[in-house]
Amino acid sequence: MSETIITFIGGGNMARSLIGGLIADGHAAANLRVAEPDTERRQALIEDFGVQAFEDNATAARGAAAIMLAVKPIMMAEVSQALANQIHAQQSLVISIAAGVRSVDLARWLGDDTAIVRAMPNTPALVQTGATALYANATTNAEQRDLAETTLRAVGMVVWLSDEAQMDAVTALSGSGPAYFFYTMEAMQAAGETLGLDTQTARLLTLETALGAARMALESRDDAATLRQRVTSPKGTTAAAIEQLESGELARLYEKAMGAAAKRAAELGDELGAQ
What is the pLDDT of residue 2? Predict the structure, then answer.
């Protein structure tokens, strides 16, 4: 794996997080390449990680076993079509992290015989605690699946999907999910301040409580409902709070919110595929 050449088309935050994770995981920086048109961003990649960075996509992609498409979704058709002949000649694996861009459309732009893995990472990948769902098309072989998994596992956990249609649900759950937790933390901090805590204290208690709860859930064999019940004493303070959340139909609200996100993900797929 360390000797495998991986090229990133686009040097934004997600690419930076993956590059940092791969290097921390033992991948040789000399075998990581980035195509980035912005001069300052390109120089920063070289200085921060010691990778090879190029202005031109084709130069960066030359000889790469895997090419990570990390550009904005609206740019995917143009970028893919420009690299199609080179990717075909090299038999490179293509990994796309562009939200909403379906593998059938990537294959239409790149060629039907292209090995494609569609990935949906999330922003905690920036701190190596991401959650990524992967879907591989029928052309992708076992070795290429392993390469895609190893690459994305460098910044967190990875799950495989057997049905690409599930990617819209993944987008709604883990792709957009960090924002839901940030919103909850924002609301909890504000409520703490309303109850008389200063901003710094309310913020620290909110963040540490969120971190502790997530760690407990990860390390426990019990599900979230069981863990919640354990800290909810009958007629106690937590029970009073949960009663208010239930009266506001919080669970139903999450269902509606995530349903809206999944619907929008499907719409984006249709819009991008029409290019």
Answer: 59
